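dumping this here before i forget
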Amino acid sequence: MEKEEKQAVLVASLSADKPEIKKAPGFNPNLIGAIADEVSRTLMSRLPGMLVHKRRKKKQKKLKIENGIFLDTSAIIDGRIFDLIYLGLMTGIIVIPASILLELKRIADSQDTIKRERGRKGLEALEKLKKTKKMKVMILSEHEEKIFNGQQVDEKLIKMSKMHKGKVITCDYNLEKKATIENVTAININALANCLKVIAVPGDSMHIKISHVGKDPSQGVGYLDDGTMLVVESGSHFIGKELDVVVARVIQTASGKILFAKKI
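structure:
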């Protein structure tokens, strides 16, 4: 018994020396939820500024040309297209690709006097049109036609006209046919001029000046105001003089009509 009592006293003494463990106070669940909500709102408001965004490349707007009239070098040099514009017969936007303008400048710098003069007149005609503002003139940059690099100037013109659903104006027969094959509307100034020539039929009377001898030494040749050739039988003796003639027959050729007449 004595031994058991000693053990009880020892245990009691040890319990007295051990510090009392206090229970930590508890947190209200509602308070914890409110704190969590506030922290999440703060993070969400600051998060966009903390993230690094990649800049999106701006998409280049696709060039759109409505009612584009694409002029080639031959039409600009010819000059008659500008007369039609000033008459008010043309509507839309005159479009000059950089490749056409460069070709025109090369002609204007040519060593050949005639080519140089025609090239400069073409450039002056374009400048005058821009100043008069009769129609809007758009010069396409090299960047805007770079997708056609490696192609000939005529091919570029046809492709650009097709892409913008425009028309090609030219004096080049081959270019006209190429454009037609590509389903691009092409107007040849020479063909247009032929359509506008005076319609003459056998029996019509005309007053004409004889300019020179025809293929046959007995023939005299004169020209109407629109350039139509008129051949007068037995008219070689009247070179430099004016005659009253009557149309005998009309022949249609690839270059236009030829009238044959007799002196009245």
